[in-house]
Design goal:
232 residues, mainly alpha, 10 helices
Length: 232
């Protein structure tokens, strides 16, 4: 139970500061702004670094059902643990999204979630670079698989562990720098569920992709690691 609570807290931090950087950091923040893309990318990456070094020894700091899926496939956790981690992560993400929305609406100018969104993931016309569904799916699978290859690789060797959190965080920065204009970058079902619950509409109807694709990518990364194809 301690691990599940730690995952909820860690995922809360990831979503609160990662998604919050897009929603709360000011009018200049938008996915078409290169400076904003960089800032949002680092907000997600630094959040992972902070949690890796604070709760990593308690739960491993997965913060992401796709990471837990990769760990499950690689033989590092049981099915029951995967379910517990995923539930905790999703609860943390939903609470974080709710807090972001509460902060946003309590401002002098108010906040229209229908027009501004809440940092939700998506694709197609009117979203980011207006990529089609197939592009969104391919990106999320590949990016998540690469993310898992890095995570499982750097956490396998005790000698690499001290720098593991930094490497993982920078990898997430790299993924966001490319993916924000494609899907807003999920690679994390919990991160996608949180905002979608409050935005509804298209965010909810497209949510299936941001659950399925990262889980597929996570499993693929776990398989690659288990086969020792990517072992350090």
């Amino acid at each position: 139970m301690k691990s599940y609570v730690a995952e909820a807290i860690g995922t809360f931090v990831l979503v609160f500061f990662g998604v919050g950087s897009a929603v709360l950091a000011g009018a200049g923040v938008g996915i078409a702004d290169p400076i904003a893309i960089t800032g949002i990318s680092f907000a997600f990456g630094i959040s992972v670094v902070a949690m890796a070094y604070s709760i990593g020894r308690i739960s491993g700091a997965h913060l992401n059902p796709a990471v837990s899926m990769g760990a499950l496939v690689a033989g590092r956790m049981t099915g029951a643990q995967f379910v517990g981690y995923s539930v905790g992560q999703t609860i943390g993400a939903v609470i974080a999204a709710g807090m972001i929305y509460l902060i946003a609406v309590n401002s002098a100018g108010g906040y229209d979630i229908a027009s501004n969104g809440l940092g939700q993931n998506g694709w197609s016309a009117g979203y980011g670079g207006e990529f089609f569904m197939i592009s969104a799916f391919i990106f999320e699978v590949i990016a998540t698989a690469i993310f898992l290859v890095v995570i499982l690789g750097v956490t396998e060797d005790d000698q690499a562990a001290p720098l593991g959190g930094l490497v993982i965080g920078l990898t997430l920065v790299m993924i966001h720098l490319v993916g924000i204009t494609v899907t807003g970058t999920s690679v994390n079902p919990a991160r996608s569920v949180g905002p979608a619950v409050f935005v509804g509409g298209t965010a909810l109807s497209q949510l299936w992709l941001f659950i399925l694709a990262p889980l597929v990518g996570g499993a693929l990364g776990g398989l690659l690691h288990k086969a020792k194809i990517t072992s350090l």
